[in-house]
Amino acid sequence: MEVNEVLLPGVGLRYEFVNADGDRIGIVARRSGDVELVAYRGDDPDECEPLFRLTADEADAVAEILGAPRIAERFADLTREVPGLAAGQITVPAASPHAGQPLAHTRARTRTGASIVAIVRGEHVIASPTPAEVLHPGDVLVVIGTDTGIASVRDLISQG
Questions:
Q1: Looking at residue 66, what is its pLDDT?
Q2: Domain boundaries along the sequence of the chain
Q3: Whether this model's pTM surpasses 0.85
Q4: What average pLDDT does the segment 83-94 reach?
Q5: CB under 8 Å to 78, separation ≥6 — which residues?
Q6: Rounded to whole angstroms, how far apart are CA atoms 107 and 109?
Q7: What are the strands, taking DSSP E only, across the chain?
Q8: pLDDT grade for 104, boundaries at 50, 70 and 90
Q9: In CATH, which of 3.30.70.1450, 3.30.420.40, 2.60.40.3500, 3.90.1580.10 is domain 61-159?
Q10: Where are the alpha helices (DSSP H) in the chain?
Q11: What gap in Å lies between CA 72 and CA 78, rounded to an integer?
Q12: DSSP bridge partners of 121
């Protein structure tokens, strides 16, 4: 799918694409963080009909909802393309010695060779978490590595 980006001076950016049904859709990302979705009429490519507007917080929530499954799909696709690479999900138990500690405390990549590439916390996804990101009980860690490396991260998170 091709997405065209158009600078709107003083307003923000407009992204346009044609969906599978042939509808021309626009997303106006305003400098304020608000987002407006519009649909273009077939008979006049310059005239659009506003569909709805989202506040910055609402747009962030929608992006996270749509982004979480896409992140998982992309990692799944990657693991199919690269022999020996796997993706796993590990839940941080309440009794974990790493709960309440920064991600760096685990030293997971150094100790196991596997990388924690995202943290799913409730409905929020923290992609590419920094070493300072504090782990919470119930967090789901998305891990990329070998099957052995992922199992080692699971043991590390559970037992220390």
A1: 72
A2: 4-54, 61-159
A3: no
A4: 86
A5: 85, 87, 144
A6: 6
A7: 4-8, 12-18, 24-30, 35-40, 48-54, 86-91, 115-121, 124-127, 140-145
A8: very high
A9: 3.30.70.1450
A10: 56-81, 108-112, 147-159
A11: 10
A12: 124
